[in-house]
Each structure stands twice: as structure tokens, then as C-alpha cells.
Amino acid sequence: MSKIINISEAASIAIYSIVAIARSKEKLNATELAISINVSRNHLAKVMQQLTKYGYLISDRGPKGGFKLNKLPDEICLLDLFELVEGNIEDISCMGDCAVCPFKDCVFGGLASKLTNEFKNYLKNTKISDLIHI
């Protein structure tokens, strides 16, 4: 089944794990996080490493270790996390290759640009604090 918007597993892991950590009163370790968001522990560990490296999380090792936020939930927007994993969202004006398109006007009527901007604005305007209680 095809999707209009496809969010990678890594980007999903980054967002869901930050929300799960923000909701928790205790530190969460990688195993607990992987189980709670239903992903591979190995993939989660790679994403957690990035989030720690770029200052979103603090990681404590050992039997009582785990992850906790290094920023306040209202200081982190979804766009920060998405672009950390995926790179910057580019504004696109066409669904295909405009350079070789035989039509004068886009047959999709600028929908690609509209959807991209709407998605980016949602990510930019949604903070982790907005998602803690859902």
C-alpha cells in the first residue's frame, strides 16, 4: 500500500522515544523504550545515540541508568527531531522532475508544495509538551 507521506522508522523512533521519556517520571532504559514503542532495540540505540550527541537527551549507564531529557519539553519541536534524523525538509514545487515535464502548468496544481509546507509547519509548531498528555 502506498503512502503520500512516509516517515522513516528512525524519525518515528526519535519522536516517539522523546515523548515517552518526557512522559516518564523515571529514567527509561533502551530495552524499556524499545518495548514501549514496539521497535528494535538495536535501531532504537542508534537513534538514542544521535539524540544524546546533539543534546536532546542525557544518558546514564549502569543498572540504574537510562535516558532523560536534557531540554524542557516545550523547547523541543517535532521539526528539530525530524530534521536531525532526516535532514532539512526541502520545499518542492512538483511531484516529479520539473525539468523534463512536458506540461506548462503542474498537473498536481502545486499540491506537493502545499502539503510539504503544511507538514513542515505542523512539525515546527508542535512541541513535545503538546504531546505528553495524549
How does this structure look, described?
- This protein has about 130 residues and is mostly helical.
- About 50% of the residues lie in helices and about 5% in strands.
Q: What is the CATH architecture assignment? A: Orthogonal Bundle
Q: Radius of gyration, Cα only, in angstroms?
A: 18 Å
**Beta-strand percentage?**
5-15%
Count of spatially separate domains? 1
Please name the CATH topology: Arc Repressor Mutant, subunit A
How do the SSEs run, as a string of H and E? HHHEEHHH
Please write out the topology.
Elements: H1 9-23, H2 30-37, H3 41-53, E1 57-60, E2 66-69, H4 78-86, H5 111-125, H6 128-131
Antiparallel strand pairs: 1-2
Helix pairs in contact: 1-2, 1-3, 1-4, 2-3, 4-5
Would you kindly provide a brief summary of this structure?
48% of the residues lie in helices and 6% in strands. The chain has 134 residues and is mainly alpha-helical. It has a single domain, classed as Winged helix-like DNA-binding domain superfamily/Winged helix DNA-binding domain (Arc Repressor Mutant, subunit A), CATH 1.10.10.
